[in-house]
Specification:
This protein is mainly α. It has five helices and two strands. Strands 1-2 form a two-stranded antiparallel sheet. α4 packs across α5.
Length: about 150
Amino acid sequence: MSLVVTEKGEFSFMLRVLNTNLEGKDKIVYALTAIKGVGRRYATLVCKKAEVDLAKRAGEITAEELERIVTIIQNPLQYKIPKWFLNRQKDIRTGEYSQNVSNAVDNTLREDLERLKKMRVHRGLRHWWGIRVRGQHTKTTGRRGKTVGVAKKK
C-alpha cells in the first residue's frame, strides 16, 4: 500500500486530538478509535455528521474538518446523535446523557467504583477484594494476583 501526498507540508503524520496522538497514515475512522471512548461505529457516525470523506487518511484532513470532528465528539446531542449511541447514559448524579472521551472515561469509572465501595454493595466489595465481580466461577480460575481461600497443607 503506497501513500500519495499531493503537496509538501499538507500531510501530517501525527495529529494531537483530545489528549491523544493519532496516526496520520491511518484512515480517519480508524485513527479516531485511538481516542479512549471512541469506537469504530461512533467514529464513523461522527465523520458522517462532520461531512468528512471516510476514505481520507487522518493526515490529509484540514484543520476545519478536524475542528468539526472534535466539536461533534464533545457535543453529540447537539448534532442529533441518538441517546442510545452514547457511552454514558443517564448519569447517576446528573441524569444526563453524554459521551465520555479520553480522561473522562477513567475518571467516571473510578468515581463509579468508589461510589459502589462506599455504599458497601456486593459489587463494590468484590472490587475492593480484587476478585471476580460478574458471577464467574472462582474455585479454579483466576488464580493470579491476590490469593483468596484456604492455604494448602504442608
